[in-house]
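Researcher: Let's run the pair from yesterday's discussion. Sequence first, then tokens, for each.
Model: Starting with the first of the pair.
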Amino acid sequence: MNIEIIRQKLQHFYDGTSTTKEEEELIEFFAHATSLPEDLMADKMMFASMSRAKNEEQDVPDNLEERLLAKVDEWERATQGRTVSMTDAGDGTKKGKVVSLPFLKSPVFRHIAASVAIIAGLGSYYVISHNNDTQIAYDKDTFTNPDEAYEKSAKALALFSRTIEMGEKGVDKAEAKTSNIINKLDKYIQ
């Protein structure tokens, strides 16, 4: 095989864009190559090691899965309800500090945040629509009967309310499932 093609495949390998087929071709090439340029000798040794490792059965340390799950659980407990605040250390690096923000998980906080977003959206619409010199067609009244307008508005708000409730039920269901999975993992780890 042409050395330039091998170099291209090596570049793909080191960039992390190589396919399994290209990696197999590289392993095969380096396994049978006898004379190579000096700069490819380290690659030959690495691919020879990969070839040996592929053919050997690897020993997995005892209780590896349990130890990994315990570590993940430990990290979860250490950062639960917290966020990392980054500050400039003065020398161009950033220093991190974990700040506790448990209120972010509160359903009340989410409802308040949603209300603020709705009010901000309506306020923005009001300011934009009333600052225009020309009256836009959709700003004009579409109902001449106030009772009919009230009835249609009530229906629209009821539909909006049901949609919000369905969304909240979905979020609650997802939170319950997540909590259930975490509890099962905790029991499994212990």
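Model: Moving on to the second of the pair.
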Amino acid sequence: MKIRHWLTRGVAVTALAAALPALAMNFVIELGQADLQRKVERLFPVSHQDPLYQVNLSEPRVVLREGGDRIGLGLKLSGTLLQQLPVSGQMQVTGGLRFEPASGEFYLRDANVEELSIDGVPEQYIGEIRRLAEHTAREVLNNHPIYVLGQLGESKQLMGREIKAISVRDGKLVLELAMF
């Protein structure tokens, strides 16, 4: 009976020892605000138009909130209302990250307008401008990567399969990729 007990423990310890390297195989990337800023700037300006409104988004500013797991973008908003009244203001969108392991690309997903400030526009039009601005931001951010592995010198051979953790620490976006 004692031999079986020790044999069982020995198998369990061996299995755990074999699994530890796989559990520890995570790849950590730290992206500073300035690094992300350079990558995001190339995506803007963008415009979208429907029969009554035109919205232009430009001058992105990356916002990383300490302890958060989302990326914020401040954007300048301009355009026209009813195809004749000029519109200008600022908006803040936030989104989570989506990782495509095959290409090593990171996208900002589910961008939501958190703040919208538009001067001189009647309240009845704000909702439609918000909807169009959010649609425009989502379209560009869902379809164009904000970062691709290898752009800061890390090896593309170290690509992970999924995002294990995202956080903002010391002004940097910290991404932990699970390798297996």
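Researcher: Give me one sentence on the second I can quote.
Model: The mean pLDDT is 81.
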